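Thread: Newbie trying to understand structure tokens

Hi all, I'm a second-year student working on a class project, and my supervisor (Dr. K.) asked me to get a predicted structure for one chain before our next meeting. I've only ever worked with sequences, so writing a 3D structure as a token string is new to me. If someone could post the tokens and maybe explain what I'm looking at, I'd be very grateful. Here's the chain:
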Amino acid sequence: MPQAQFADQITLAITGASGAPYALRLLEQLVSANYQIHVLMSSAAKVVFKTELDEPWQNTPEFFEQRFSARHGQILLPGKQDWFSVVASGSSAPKTMLICPCSMGTLASIAHGLSDNLIERAADVVLKERGKLVIVPREMPYSSLHLENMLKLSRLGATILPASPGFYHQPKSISDLVDHVVARILDHIDVKQTLFTPWGYRPEN
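---
Reply by user tm_fold:
Sure, no problem. This is what the structure looks like when written as tokens:
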């Protein structure tokens, strides 16, 4: 159970696909929504962050708390082999997990139930407990193998939400495109967001 001062718990896995800005914006929104977040970063994700972000990055609770203006204990950083983390247990893991961005390697491992690291195990737990697993793949083009793995996970109950922003909201910047994808993720886990106005709605509505 989350500590009393937090609305709920959630697991956010960040893997080695391109798309660090999606993960950062999503984490900002979850902190703002008062979630306690278990952040699972793969080794490849740390390489991607170093490549894509124009800022220094440290994988420590202190750095995350300062970077995201989070309260002490709001962002938890279990290691990839931390089998005693709550996310590894069906009896205590958060019921919702996001993988953003999701590499095709991670996708394949989850689809085949490998559970060789904490990200894969946490996803396996959410699936077996009939929780909510949202996978945000970032790759192009998709091979038939990628598509088969996505279909398999979709049939198991996961939501496949590709990082494919729309343009009907007339984006003016890269940040607008990032916000569109993050907003769609938040909509699927029932977290209120004000990043963009849904299709068909106007301020006067």
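A couple of things are worth pointing out once you decode it. Strands lie at 8-14, 35-41, 75-76, 96-102, 132-137, 159-160. Residues 133 and 181 are 16 Å apart (CA to CA). Feel free to ask follow-ups in this thread.
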